[in-house]
């Protein structure tokens, strides 16, 4: 998957712009000025396979360093349904800080709408990935309209997904012209499994196992 291009960039390596999406990326060993450890993943529209994409990115990042994927569902399963309430702010902030300390990268998956969790993800991030389907009509998502207000100085990058075997990217300039705040963009060729219902069922199963692992690590820490 083309997410290799993204994770190399996120971890501070320089990506040559001529590298192909389907081939191994050509990497310059010189370190980049960027080294992101907290990344928010934001969907442009409801039809973006956000969970599947985040899992693909998470899997790639795990290959080169400890990574955690955090969602509102995961947080509520681990810390309780009322964890987002204002009186639990200190507890949630402390727990998230622990996760960031234990992992090289923390992936914050936003909700489809501008919930309390989504706003926290955006404020928490060193880098915000704005994910869209590249074969759709260019548009600005509901959450995007609030990003500049919540994270003016945060790095923002556009990720355009396309199906494996589909047509080559086109119309990128229209996506970019709508987003003066975007500093980088990526074309990601996605495997078919990202768009299948079977994949979503598998993701739910993996997510439950991930929750168990995090709880176990949390208990051992005390």
Automatic annotation (TrEMBL):
Pfam families: NTE_Ploop (PF24179). It comes from the Eukaryota. InterPro entries: NTE1_P-loop_dom. Residues 35-206 form the Lysophospholipase NTE1-like P-loop domain. Keywords: Membrane, Transmembrane, Transmembrane helix. The chain crosses the membrane at residues 203-221. This is Lysophospholipase NTE1-like P-loop domain-containing protein.
């Amino acid at each position: 998957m083309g997410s290799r291009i993204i994770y190399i960039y996120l971890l501070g390596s320089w990506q040559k712009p001529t590298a192909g999406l389907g081939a191994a990326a050509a990497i310059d060993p010189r370190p980049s000025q960027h080294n992101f450890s907290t990344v928010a993943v934001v969907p442009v529209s409801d039809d973006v396979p956000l969970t599947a994409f985040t899992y693909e990115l998470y899997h790639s990042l795990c290959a080169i360093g400890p990574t955690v994927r955090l969602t509102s569902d995961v947080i509520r399963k681990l810390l309780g349904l009322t964890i987002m309430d204002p009186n639990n702010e200190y507890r949630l902030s402390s727990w998230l800080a622990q996760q960031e300390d234990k992992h090289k990268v923390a992936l914050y998956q936003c909700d489809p709408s501008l919930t309390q969790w989504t706003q926290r993800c955006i404020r928490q991030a060193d880098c915000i990935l704005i994910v869209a389907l590249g074969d759709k009509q260019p548009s600005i998502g509901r959450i995007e309209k609030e990003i500049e207000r919540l994270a003016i100085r945060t790095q923002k990058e556009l990720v355009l997904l396309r199906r494996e075997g589909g047509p080559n990217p086109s119309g990128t300039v229209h996506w970019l012209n709508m987003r003066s705040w975007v500093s980088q963009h990526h074309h990601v060729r996605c495997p078919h499994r990202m768009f299948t219902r079977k994949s979503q069922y598998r993701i739910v199963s993996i997510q439950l196992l991930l929750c168990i692992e995090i709880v176990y690590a949390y208990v051992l820490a005390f």
